[in-house]
Structures are given as structure tokens and as C-alpha cells.
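Quick question: what would this complex look like in 3D?
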Amino acid sequence: MAVCIAVIAKENYPLYIRSVPTQNELKFHYTVHTSLDVVEEKISAVGKSLGDQRELYLGLLYPTEDYKVYGYVTNSKVKFVIVVDSSNTSLRDNEIRSMFRKLHNSFTDVMCNPFHNPGDTIQSKAFDGIVSAMMVQTG
Amino acid sequence: MADEAPFQFLHSELIQYITKSAESGDTENARNITKLEIMGFRVGQGLIERLTKDTVRFKDELDIMKFICKDFWTCVFKKQIDNLRTNHQGIYVLQDNKFRLLSQLSAGKQYLEQAPKYLAFTCGLVRGALSNLGVKSIVTAEVSVMPACKFQVMIQKM
């Protein structure tokens, strides 16, 4: 389903990034990096106009020729970015939402793990498993 | 989330454990309080992550403080903060007229000098919660008559 899933810390450094094994892994890193500006823009818009979205889910950040990039920001300003293949048109907004929800739930578990140091990269196997499940479902 | 009795017992045992395992002396006392504060900090970080999972994004600082006073306090202490005051310049005073961790100590002024160690964990809890929401702060506590307690939150501007 997803081709790249990333978790970015409050201070904008990567906590976790995983992409499908292809030759150009770097490209995904660039894509995620670029998306942070859009995320920033969307968050700073909050509170300025009435009736704006105060949801954690930010929706589609930007489409590129081959990929669609979706974003989600937790209340603790941790960003989740999911990149999906544009050719996968069957993917609904709801499914993306539920993916983010799962990711967030798992991330919360990681944060509440006393052996995890907040701010460190994520090494949890459970989290890894959740991410793998989302990547595998590629049609 | 935390059940009433186990949390109170665990908390008082924690204080016992930390004070007993350190040697006596005034400097040690300050270190014990720091230790408790740091523990609270880590717990606060984790707890706020879980509590804010399904809430909408906060509008501003005051919105965050309200959340701490209502939802966060209810989750930990089974009651809301009784009074929240602010000077709108980064200082918030949270008043709890019957602070749960002090409610088992005899009311009045008898055990006043024991109070700091019973408040350190909570100060850390609030500081940890705020820091994870992106608000750097200094939290201090103040007791004049026993179960009532005031927490002062000073926001550190970047």
C-alpha cells in the first residue's frame, strides 16, 4: 500500500523512516523532507481563520508525478508522513486515515515504553511490524 | 486511568524508597527531590502522548493549560483543578483545594516541611506534559495549609 512511511520528531529530525526496497531510497528521503514545509504551512494556518481544520490528520500534502504524500501531526508535534503510489487509485481517504490512526496508536505505545528514551530513533519491533503490514499490502 | 489507591500507595512508597536509599543530609534532600521530579517528567511525557491522542489540535497556550487542568488532572487525581489564574504573560497558577497526594497527611501545618517531596513528582508530571506539547516551563509548588496546594507554571519563552 504505502511505499514509504516516516516519523519526524518535533525538532524535524527523523525518528523512523522506512521505504520499499528500491534503488533510490534517497528519493523518498527527499520527498519526506520536502513535505515538512507543507506540514509547517498547514499547522501555522491553524488559529488564523475560523472554521479551519484542527484535526490531527492533515490530508494530502502534495502529489508528485509518481507519488502522493499524506501527513499527520500529533499534539506533541511529531509528524507522520506516508507516501503512496499515485497509480494506486483505489486507495480511499478513509483508509489513509486508519493507517495514520494505527501508526499513532503504535507510536503512543512506544512513547509509553519506559525503556524508550523520548527523542531517540524508534527501535520497537511492534512498531516495525505495524509499518511492515502497511507496506506489504501493495496490490 | 490510574486507580485511586494503588497510585497513592505507589507514590508514597516511591518517596520512601528514594529517601531511604540516599544518605541523610540537606544536599541529599535536594537531590531526592530532583530525582522524583525527573521521574514525574518522564511519566508526564508518556501520559500526555496517550491523553491527547484523540483530541483536536490545541489553539494556544491557554488551551493547553485548560487541558492540563481538566482532562490531565482528572486522569491522574480524579478531580479538576479548582482555580486557574494567569497574568497572560506566561505565568499560570493552578490551585487545588484538596490535592490528593496530600490528602492522607494530617491537615494543617504539622507536616509542612515534608510537603516538598510529596509535590516534586507532580511538578515533574506537569513539566513533562507541557514539554511534550512543545511548551518549555518551570513548575514550582507552594503549600500554606495542608491539603490545599498551588502550582506555579512559568512558561519559558524561546
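Answer marked as accepted. The mean pLDDT of chain B is 87.
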